[in-house]
C-alpha cells in the first residue's frame, strides 16, 4: 500500500472515531485551524472581530521577542560556528556538528528550527488568508491592507531564512481545511506538501514583498520593531543578491531606497551594542542604523544573553556553564591583523570562567554584541545594506564606487581606506568586501550566508581547520552539498512527500 494511502486511511480511521480529523501544530509542517470564535450563525471563524485580528498580529510581533531560538540563537550558531567566525562553544552533541561539519537530519537544532519556522508561517497565513472575511465594520479597508502587508513581510522574512538554510522547501500560503471522509483526498496535499524548487520559494518571497510595499507602514524613526516598507525594501535588496534571483541592478535600487528612507551609519559603533553610563540599560534603541530590531527593557529581559555570555545587568546570572558561539582564533587574528580595535572591542570580550573548552579559563573570549538582558537584537541594519550595495557594484564593475562605500564603513571603524591596488582588481575587491563584512557584521548571523552567496564555502572552510588550532577536527570536507542543511528526519518521516537534501 502506498504511503499516501496509509496516511489517508489513518486519518479516515480517526475520523470514524472522532467525526473529524484536524491536524495541529506539533510537529508543524501543516497549519492551525484553531479559531478565535463564532459568527452570528454560530459558525466557527478565524477572527471574530477587529480586536481578534489585532491580538493575532501582536502574537506575530511577539515572535521577535519571545521565540528567539530559531531566528536568532540557532541562526547565530549556524552563521558563525558553521563558518570560520566561531567555535560551537559547548561540547553538546547538538551543537558541535555545526563546528566540525557533521550535521545530520536527526540533529535536534535543525528539527527545532524547521518546526518553529513552520509555526511562524502558519501564524502569518492565518491572518493573510482570513482578514478580508472578518465581519467587523470598524476594521477599515486600509487597516486590513496594512495588517496583511505586515504579515506578508513577516512570512517573507521567515521564508528567506528557511530557503537559505534548506533550499527546496514547501511553499505554504494557505490554510488546510478539516479532514473528513468527503474531503480527505482534496486536503491531503495541504497537510503533506511537497518541496518547491528554491527559485519558486524566492519568487514567492519576492511576490509577498512587492505586494506588501504599497500598504506596509512607513519607517518610524522612533520604533524600529515594525515590519515596515523599509524592512520590505531591505529584504528585496537581500533576495536579489542571492543566486536564484540575482539581479544586481535591483540590489542597488533597493539599497538606495532604504537609504532614502532616512537610514545611515551611526557615528559611534558603540551606540549599536553598548550599555548606558550606569550599566543598567542598553545605550540606545531605534538608532538611524537599525532597520528592524527586537527590544527588551528592564524587568522583561532577553534570555538569549545567557546562551552567549554574561548578562551585564546581572553579572553572575547563568554563568556557570559553557556558552554557545565562542569567537575563533581565526576571527581574532583577522581583527588584530587589520588593526581594527574599535569593532574588535565591541564584538569580543574576555572573562574568567570555570571551563576551558577552547581557551584557558583565565582569559576566555565571548561574543559581545548581546551583552545584557536589555540589549536589542538587531535583525537588519544599514551597514549590511551599504556593504551589499558595494557587493553589487563590484559585480557590475564599478570598483571605485564600491570602494567608496567600503571606505565609509572602514572610516567609522577608525581604519584607513582601501589601497589603490585593491581598488584596481575585482577579485581583490571581492576579498576586501568579504573581510569587511566579516569584521563589521561578526556575530550578527551573516558570515555563513556570505560564504554561500559568493561560492566561498569550500575555499574558506576547508582551509581554516589547518590554520585555526582551536577548531575541532573536520568530520567531512565541505563541498557543494554543504551549502544546505539536512531536512529534519522526523519531518521526512511525518511527510512522505519530502525528499532529503543531497549528501545527508
UniProtKB/TrEMBL annotation:
Superkingdom of this protein's organism: Bacteria
Keywords of this entry: Cell outer membrane, Membrane, Signal
Compartment annotation: Cell outer membrane
SUPFAM superfamilies: TPR-like
Pfam families, sorted: SusD-like_3 (PF14322), SusD_RagB (PF07980)
Domain RagB/SusD as annotated: residue spans: 362-504
Signal peptide: 1-25
Cross-referenced InterPro entries: SusD-like_N (IPR033985), SusD_RagB_dom (IPR012944), TPR-like_helical_dom_sf (IPR011990)
CDD domains: SusD
Boundaries of every SusD-like N-terminal domain copy: 39-240
Family from the record: Belongs to the SusD family.
Descriptive protein name: RagB/SusD family nutrient uptake outer membrane protein
Amino acid at each position: 500500500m502506498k504511503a499516501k494511502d496509509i496516511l489517508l486511511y489513518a486519518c479516515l480511521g480517526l475520523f470514524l472515531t472522532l467525526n473529524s480529523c484536524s491536524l495541529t501544530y506539533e510537529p508543524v509542517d501543516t497549519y492551525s485551524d484553531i479559531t478565535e470564535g463564532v459568527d452570528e450563525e454560530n459558525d466557527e471563524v478565524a477572527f471574530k472581530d477587529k480586536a481578534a485580528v489585532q491580538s493575532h498580529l501582536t502574537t506575530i510581533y511577539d515572535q521577535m521577542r519571545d521565540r528567539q531560538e530559531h531566528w536568532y540563537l540557532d541562526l547565530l550558531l549556524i552563521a558563525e560556528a558553521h563558518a570560520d567566525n566561531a567555535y560551537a562553544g559547548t561540547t553538546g552533541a547538538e551543537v558541535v556538528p555545526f563546528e566540525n561539519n557533521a550535521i545530520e537530519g536527526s540533529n535536534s537544532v535543525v528539527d527545532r528550527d524547521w518546526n518553529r519556522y513552520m509555526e511562524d508561517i502558519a501564524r502569518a497565513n492565518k491572518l493573510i488568508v482570513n482578514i478580508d472575511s472578518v465581519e467587523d465594520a470598524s476594521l477599515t479597508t486600509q487597516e486590513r491592507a496594512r495588517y496583511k502587508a505586515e504579515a506578508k513581510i513577516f512570512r517573507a522574512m521567515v521564508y528567506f531564512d528557511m530557503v537559505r538554510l534548506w533550499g527546496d522547501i514547501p511553499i505554504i500560503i494557505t490554510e488546510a481545511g478539516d479532514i473528513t471522509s468527503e474531503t480527505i483526498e482534496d486536503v491531503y496535499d495541504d497537510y503533506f506538501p511537497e518541496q518547491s524548487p528554491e527559485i519558486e520559494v524566492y519568487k514567492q518571497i519576492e511576490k509577498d514583498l512587492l505586494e506588501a510595499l504599497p500598504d506596509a507602514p512607513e519607517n518610524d524613526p522612533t520604533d524600529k520593531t515594525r515590519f515596515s516598507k523599509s524592512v520590505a525594501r531591505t529584504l528585496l535588496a537581500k533576495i536579489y543578491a542571492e543566486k536564484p534571483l540575482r539581479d544586481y541592478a535591483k540590489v542597488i535600487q533597493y539599497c538606495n531606497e532604504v537609504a532614502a528612507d532616512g537610514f545611515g551609519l551611526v557615528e559611534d559603533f558603540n551606540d549599536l551594542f553598548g550599555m548606558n553610563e550606569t550599566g543598567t540599560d542598553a545605550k540606545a534603541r531605534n538608532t538611524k542604523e537599525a532597520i528592524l530590531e527586537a527590544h527588551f527593557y528592564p524587568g522583561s529581559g532577553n534570555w538569549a544573553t545567557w546562551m552567549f555570555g554574561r548578562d551585564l545587568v546581572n553579572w553572575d546570572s547563568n554563568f556557570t556553564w559553557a556558552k554557545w558561539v565562542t569567537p575563533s582564533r581565526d576571527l581574532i587574528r583577522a581583527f588584530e591583523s587589520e588593526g581594527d580595535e574599535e569593532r574588535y572591542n565591541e564584538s569580543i570580550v574576555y572573562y574568567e570562567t570555570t571551563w576551558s573548552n577552547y581557551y584557558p579559563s583565565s582569559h576566555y573570549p565571548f561574543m559581545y554584541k548581546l551583552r545584557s538582558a536589555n540589549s536589542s537584537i538587531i535583525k537588519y541594519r544599514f551597514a549590511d545594506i551599504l556593504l551589499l550595495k558595494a557587493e553589487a557594484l563590484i559585480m557590475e564593475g564599478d570598483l571605485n564606487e564600491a570602494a567608496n562605500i567600503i571606505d565609509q564603513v572602514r572610516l567609522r571603524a577608525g581604519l584607513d581606506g582601501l589601497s589603490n591596488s585593491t581598488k584596481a582588481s575585482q577579485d581583490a575587491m571581492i576579498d576586501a568586501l568579504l573581510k569587511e563584512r566579516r569584521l563589521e557584521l561578526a556575530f550578527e548571523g551573516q558570515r555563513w550566508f556570505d560564504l554561500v552567496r559568493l561560492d566561498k564555502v569550500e575555499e574558506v572552510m576547508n582551509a581554516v581547520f589547518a590554520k585555526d588550532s582551536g577548531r575541532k577536527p573536520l568530520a567531512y570536507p565541505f563541498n557543494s552539498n554543504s551549502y544546505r542543511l539536512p531536512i529534519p528526519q522526523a519531518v521526512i518521516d511525518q511527510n512522505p512527500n519530502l525528499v532529503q537534501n543531497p549528501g545527508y
